[in-house]
UniProtKB/TrEMBL annotation:
SMART domains per UniProt: ZnF_C2H2
Keywords: Metal-binding, Zinc, Zinc-finger
Molecular functions per Gene Ontology: zinc ion binding
Organism placement in taxonomy: Eukaryota, Metazoa, Ecdysozoa, Arthropoda, Hexapoda
Residue intervals of the C2H2-type domain: 41-69
Protein's UniProt name: C2H2-type domain-containing protein
Pfam families per the UniProt record, alphabetical: zf-C2H2
Presence of keyword Zinc: yes
Entries under InterPro entries matching the protein: Znf_C2H2_type
Keyword Lipid metabolism in annotation: no
PROSITE patterns: ZINC_FINGER_C2H2_1, ZINC_FINGER_C2H2_2
Amino acid sequence: MAYEDKFRSDPFTPGLFHCLICGKGVRNKHNHFRTHFPGDHRCWQCGVVYSRLDKLKTHLRTVHNCDYIQRTQWMTFNLNTSNW
Ligand SMILES: [Zn+2]
Ligand SMILES: [Zn+2]
């Protein structure tokens, strides 16, 4: 999904962008855009993608026997994996 046109760059702060959806100032456009359109919820264990978060949660619980964690939390202890 295209996200570039959903942001306006801040005229005073290089590298800062304002989200046209919520008005928030962000630096990582892609990450922020995903918070509005969490269209694909990917299992970080096996890579399967669900369109609904609750399905992914159920998948994690039943298949991997673990709880859903936010992608950002997951990133903090899996910094080497970048294929998201
Ligand atoms: Zn936003
Ligand atoms: Zn899985």
